[in-house]
Description:
Elements: H1 2-13, H2 15-25, H3 61-74, E1 79-86, E2 92-98, E3 111-115, H4 125-139, H5 144-152, E4 154-158, H6 163-169, E5 197-201, E6 207-209, E7 217-219, H7 235-241, E8 271-276, H8 318-330, E9 334-339, E10 349-351, H9 364-381, E11 385-387, H10 393-396, H11 408-415, E12 419-424, H12 440-450, E13 456-464, E14 468-475, H13 483-501, E15 507-516, E16 522-530, H14 540-545, E17 551-558, E18 560-562, E19 569-573, H15 582-586, E20 593-602, E21 608-616, E22 620-628
Parallel strand pairs: 3-4, 3-9, 9-12, 10-11
Antiparallel strand pairs: 1-2, 2-4, 5-8, 5-14, 6-7, 6-8, 10-12, 13-14, 15-16, 16-20, 17-19, 17-21, 18-20, 21-22
Helix pairs in contact: 4-13, 9-13
Amino acid sequence: MHKKILSVKIEILGISFLVLFALFFKPVTMEAIQLRSTQPNLTPVPKNVKFDFERWPYPLYDEVIARFHELTRKYPKLARMHNIGKSGEGRDLWVIEITNSETGPGDSKPAMWGDAGMHAGEVTGRPVMQYFVERLLASYGKDPVIKNLVNTRTFYVMPVMDADGGELVLTRHPAWPGYDPSQRRGKDLDGNGYITQMRVKDPDGKYYKSPIDPRVMLRVRDREGGSWNYIPTTYEEDNYYWYSGIPNMGWRHKGEEPKEFDDPLAPRDQRYSIYTEGQNFKELEPIVLRERANFNRNWSYDWRPNERGSGPYPFSLPEIRAVAEFMTRTHRNIFFHYNIHSGGAARNYIVRPPMNKLVTDMDYEDNNFYRRTASIYSAISGGCITNTNYDNPNLMTGMYGDTMHGFATDWAYEHCGIHILTPEIMAKQKDYNGDGFVTSYEILRWNDEEMDGRFFKDWTPYDHPVLGGVEIGGNRGMPPAYGEQLETVCRIHYDYLIHIAGLSPLLRIKDLRSEREHDGKYRVIATLKNEGFLSTYITRNALRIRRDYPIVSKIKVVGGTVTDGERASKIVGHILGPLAYIARWGQGADESTKIVEWMVKPTGSGPLSVTVEAWAHKAGRDKQTITIKK
């Protein structure tokens, strides 16, 4: 159909257009490969791991949770479910815990938290987290790395945070299960089972047809504050907005306002406005209440009441409050937060903190964690980057105000003292020219050539009762991730999370011994060791905000007692991980141990049994017993 439309236009406009088209647009066609990207470097998948990567739309919330409950029955020693609260509409909020219960309860081990679906429309994280859970459990006993991690760490996975909004997104078309027309702002006017878009000619419209493929609607370039999508090509224009203010104050305009700009690529007579197919144009009653709270503006760090979507107060959303309670009060063993989004880009990337200042304002050790994990992500993914949204052009130009406020990314690091990464992941659909990016044109090519056009409706005329002559068309339930591309994304993030899980601190009692003193007492000496890569405080920021939770060690004596004036429980402080002194560690230094001592005395004639236990919230718990024969 696309080729037919183009041929008609060529016949009407003549040979001169044909020559210009070949001259100006050939460099961006699939055949003109200018760049070759590296490929993902992934671990092999055990044969017993089964997952349907061609399921679309993705399973609804109840099906996802039912499957997780089924997995807890299949792997009773490795998995259990937590009901952490209720959604705004009353749905149970479920989290699956994965660890080997025979090696200790989940909250006694350093833990990783992963969630998806914080934003209802960003649904790619749902299958990514499902795949992670399925593969992690199926790999236990098959992969020695996984067996060790599940024995010594804990994984908490919340597959859908906005359970209510996610249901709306995945039931939005009449052709999909669960569709409810009363919850939709549009209607299926042409009866094809999908609610697409309507485009109508409008000299003040914000869109125009792509000259490369007229099915694609491009945004008109303009300079309207946060809608700025005009990239300047001169220093004078650059000088207008590239200015960094002090930390937590963001970007500021400097210089005079640039000259008025009207995009020459989109003449006024070729512009369109775009609406939802069948949307209601009746005048609505005035609404004085604020907009619905945004799940990623409702966290406490740098929360501001004037931020769009911030909600009436931090943690006002029950889902956000439930997650915060779980992570900070009932499960303080969490050292890392993986907060999956899928906002869409030509290439996947990961956002790291800080969101409100330059990365150079972060402590060196913490920054080093993000630099090193970023290199691992790039190697696994085949070149995808990790960055901070503080350098996001939309932020610089006012789309989010001076900085981004109330984000989970900064809450986890700044208020909890743990590490966090926020991947923005899509898998649309196939990178035909191998440059590492997937453009709108490649998505349509995939749809045309490999999916028989099922996910796009060509624009067709329609007589609308309010707008008059319009065209109905556009994406027809286009999946954000599907098939081979979804599988690749799932495998990338599985491997990356497994790598990060292995970086946690891991507290162990390396040695426990006794020495007899001259007065008949015994000196008990415990050597504590951090076998992990991170220090037991996790971040330097945790030390600053006093959320570091130092190591505690306790002795229990049977057949004796600790000497007068000595405490059975002692605060040991922290033990470094190699990241904190990595240069010296590489040269052979070992600062991974601490010694704890007690003096004990017998109270009878029999042997002494001495048990020492050591724990830290985010480094785990260990216990050893020795018998002292007199």
